[in-house]
């Protein structure tokens, strides 16, 4: 039960992060690179402060190559996500992102020889089908190729970042160091490509997204990943778009119709099936 609650809190943080990002860029008028950079810097400051407040022995440092890949995958996700949402609507973007996360993490599970029982494959397929039912764009909806490619790249980045966090001996420290190493790159990108002018509302949204739903949320995610496994973690993340849409309904008054309610049940049924423990032979 504790693992379920921690996973649920993490998924809520991910959904809130998506809502904050869209609000900052679309409603508050923030430029995408600037928003992503401030989000990254805020997460680095928050996690760095947590490290300074802690006491105890330092765990073994991650190898430089592994750290480099973790930082690169984090940057790929953050900037691909923000840039894609300039052109993609929320539904289409979420579908592309989490479909690619699903594919990446399942591929990682197979490559690492993780046992993936049949119910988990069926649960993933059922959840992904329900997600597609909710978010698949109609014939009139445009899917800009560049924005779609950027969101797909963000999904691959987040999938790899999640896979690399499974073996972290100290999740908070690993997440903090990834953010701290990535922050200078983000600030350089902001200086070269971003707009310096941001409204107070956009700054607040970016700081909340970075410090709370990204920094603390990702540290929590790293802590639950070893107990979930790659395939079950991939299935669990398919609930994020559903939570985000429900949050949008509660905050913006955009209430779902009957089709959404049915598709939500399909997704949650798939998650429940995929989360079932494997039976011993």
Automatic annotation (TrEMBL):
InterPro entries: AA-Vitamin_Transporters (IPR050638), EamA_dom (IPR000620), EmrE-like (IPR037185). Residues 149-273 form the EamA domain. GO terms for cellular component: membrane. Pfam families: EamA. It is a multi-pass membrane protein. The keyword Plastid does not apply. Its main location: membrane. Keywords: Membrane, Transmembrane, Transmembrane helix. Coiled coil: none annotated. It is found in: Membrane. The chain crosses the membrane at residues 32-53, 65-85, 91-111, 118-136, 142-164, 176-196, 202-221, 233-252, 258-278. This is Carboxylate/amino acid/amine transporter. It comes from Thalassovita mediterranea. The lineage of its organism: Bacteria, Pseudomonadati, Pseudomonadota, Alphaproteobacteria, Rhodobacterales.
């Amino acid at each position: 039960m504790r693992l379920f609650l921690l996973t649920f809190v993490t998924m809520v943080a991910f959904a809130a992060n998506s809502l904050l990002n869209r609000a900052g860029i679309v409603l508050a008028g923030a430029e995408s690179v600037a928003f992503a950079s401030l989000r990254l810097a805020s997460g680095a400051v928050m996690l760095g402060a947590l490290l300074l407040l802690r006491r105890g022995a330092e765990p073994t440092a991650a190898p430089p190559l592994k750290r480099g890949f973790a930082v690169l995958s984090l940057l790929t996700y953050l900037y691909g996500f923000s840039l894609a949402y300039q052109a993609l609507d929320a539904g289409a973007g979420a579908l592309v992102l989490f479909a690619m996360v699903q594919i990446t993490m399942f591929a990682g599970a197979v490559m690492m020889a993780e046992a993936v029982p049949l119910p988990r494959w069926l649960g993933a397929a059922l959840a992904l089908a329900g997600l597609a039912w909710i978010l698949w764009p109609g014939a009139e909806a445009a899917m800009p190729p560049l924005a779609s490619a950027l969101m797909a790249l963000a999904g691959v980045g987040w999938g790899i970042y999640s896979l690399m966090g499974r073996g972290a001996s100290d999740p908070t420290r690993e997440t903090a160091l990834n953010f701290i190493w990535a922050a200078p790159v983000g600030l350089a990108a902001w200086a070269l490509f971003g707009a310096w002018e941001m409204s107070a509302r956009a700054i607040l949204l970016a700081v909340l997204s970075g410090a709370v739903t990204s920094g603390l949320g990702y540290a929590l995610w790293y802590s639950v990943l070893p107990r979930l496994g790659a395939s079950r973690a991939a299935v669990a993340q398919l609930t994020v778009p559903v939570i985000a849409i429900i949050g949008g309904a509660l905050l913006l008054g955009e209430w779902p119709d009957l089709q959404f309610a049915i598709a939500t049940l399909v997704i949650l049924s798939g998650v429940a099936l995929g989360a079932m423990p494997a039976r011993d032979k």
